[in-house]
Design goal:
Oligomer: single chain
Helix content: 40-55%
Distance between the termini: 90 Å
Largest sheet: 4 strands, mixed
Number of strands: 9
Number of domains: 2
């Protein structure tokens, strides 16, 4: 075989190998296309023979992005607020969006919030990622309730109802005790009056079973009613 023939054969082999790998990605995309964010476990549930090294290859080619260890998205995934919420739910479960981010989503804090804040029954955790920051604060298992399911293009994400987001926030911030303290929280009294059902608020508060939280809530309601 002449040198030109050898070169042609080598080139054909390279092209065929490249096409084969690309077709593997296309097939993978069809299988995992319903996921916004997915783990290796998700992949292997769909394809038990999947080779992990493909994830590194496809990251190098720019097909995938790693969010945190073990979790990935397609690089061309359109990112909006609800997609970030779904990602937050998935990468550290069980969790739901709460605290400042949920209050901002419900229009109770006027300014935008840096990073997605969530409540979880697991230990406090913080992730810095290419998509932004995701922070998780620990709540007792009995307090893992009071969230809604928002639709996200066929999937869903969990986010606290206004009443629960407020109580979770007060649960964490035990330094809030006076009318002046609440005046500096950025929480809109006007939005509170529009968004919050006081009966639900009181019912949720009873589950916490904390006298200090009830006192904090009472002071906040005085602040809202006289603002």
């Amino acid at each position: 075989m002449t040198k030109p023939q050898l070169c042609d054969t080598f080139l054909i082999d390279v092209i065929n190998s490249t096409l084969e790998k690309y077709m593997q990605y296309i097939q993978f995309r069809k299988i995992m296309g319903g996921f916004k964010v997915f783990s290796l476990a998700d992949i292997r549930q769909a394809d038990p023979l999947f080779h992990r090294r493909r994830l590194n290859e496809w990251q190098d080619k720019g097909y995938l992005k790693k969010i945190i260890k073990g979790y990935y998205i397609f690089s061309d995934l359109p990112i909006d607020e609800k997609v970030l919420f779904e990602i937050a739910n998935r990468i550290y479960a069980p969790s739901y969006v709460s605290f400042e981010m949920a209050l901002a989503y419900h229009g109770m804090i006027p300014e935008s919030i840096y990073g997605v804040t969530s409540a979880s029954t697991r230990k406090t955790m913080h992730f810095k990622t290419s998509l932004g920051e995701f922070s998780y604060r620990t709540i007792q298992p009995k307090l893992y309730f009071g969230f809604d399911y928002l639709s996200v293009s066929g999937n869903y994400c969990k986010i606290a109802f206004p009443e629960k987001a407020l109580l979770d926030y007060f649960y964490l911030h035990d330094e809030l005790n006076s009318l002046d303290d609440f005046a500096h929280t950025r929480i809109s009294g006007e939005a509170f009056l529009k968004k919050v059902d006081r009966k639900n608020l009181e019912g949720y508060a009873a589950v916490y079973g904390q006298k200090s939280l009830n006192k904090r809530l009472k002071t906040f309601l005085e602040y809202v009613d006289h603002a």
